[in-house]
Amino acid sequence: MSVFISATGTDVGKSFLSSLILAKYGEELGLKYFKPIQTGEESDRASVMDLSGLDESRFLKNYYAFAFAGSPHYAAELEGTEIDTDELARHLFSIREEKLIVEGAGGLLVPLTRKTLTIDVVRQSEIPLILAAPVSLGAINQTLLSLEAIQKRNLAFKGIFFIGTPDKTTEDNIRTILEWSGVPMLGFFFFHTKERLSREEFRKECFLRFDPDSILKEAIQ
């Protein structure tokens, strides 16, 4: 079964979480990676491939790729086109039984067109969702709003994974989010440096600190 990785917003850590999953479990579980929509010149597909160290054959090509680093609906409009969300939803539905880590673009309420949000396509695809959430100041509001949107649409939801650089609010942020939402927690991964890790450093940190109790592993199987 595939899983859809989304987040409370842009640059929360979807690609990093995808890299962690693929680095640790890609070979064992036969996982592949798919980012249907890429905006901007920097390729998340290439970044995840580099960090995970898996063969390129495990990385599906983007369904859509736009040069402008912005919301998919606007990036598409700048190139004189529109994302066919019905076709995309059908495609995702057709591959939902495969072992794919599907990474969304931005957060759940990011528009793909002027009429369709990312969360609508996730619902239509019937792919279970994992939400990446931040851990620092401001995390409570944006995370509870995302969880409210998920629950309102009755999405198949695996749980929440906390990721980011901790601060003095982190411990209570996590506690408060879990108490108010009642959703499963799949784990956490804290950054100890803002510098980009080499592949070797990343894999070392991944195997030392990521998913030590295999909770997330169980969720993606």
TrEMBL record:
Question: Which reaction is this enzyme known to catalyze?
Answer: (7R,8S)-8-amino-7-(carboxyamino)nonanoate + ATP = (4R,5S)-dethiobiotin + ADP + phosphate + H(+); (7R,8S)-7,8-diammoniononanoate + CO2 + ATP = (4R,5S)-dethiobiotin + ADP + phosphate + 3 H(+)
Q: Which Pfam families match?
A: AAA_26
The coenzyme or cofactor needed here is: Mg(2+)
Q: What class of enzyme is it?
A: ligase
EC number of this enzyme: 6.3.3.3
Q: Does the keyword ATP-binding apply?
A: yes
Question: What Gene3D superfamilies is this protein classified in?
Answer: P-loop containing nucleotide triphosphate hydrolases
The residues that the entry says bind ATP are D11, V12, G13, K14, S15, F16, D44, E103, G104, A105, G106
| Any GO MF annotation of the entry | dethiobiotin synthase activity
The residues that hold Mg(2+) are: S15, D44, E103
Pathway(s) served: Cofactor biosynthesis; biotin biosynthesis; biotin from 7,8-diaminononanoate: step 1/2
Which keywords fit this entry according to its UniProt record?
Answer: ATP-binding, Biotin biosynthesis, Cytoplasm, Ligase, Magnesium, Metal-binding, Nucleotide-binding
Subunit comment for this entry?
Homodimer.
> What is the recorded function of this protein according to its Swiss-Prot or TrEMBL entry?
Catalyzes a mechanistically unusual reaction, the ATP-dependent insertion of CO2 between the N7 and N8 nitrogen atoms of 7,8-diaminopelargonic acid (DAPA, also called 7,8-diammoniononanoate) to form a ureido ring.
Record family assignment: Belongs to the dethiobiotin synthetase family.
Q: In its UniProt entry, what is this protein called?
A: ATP-dependent dethiobiotin synthetase BioD
Q: Which organism is it from?
A: Leptospira stimsonii
Q: Which gene encodes it?
A: bioD
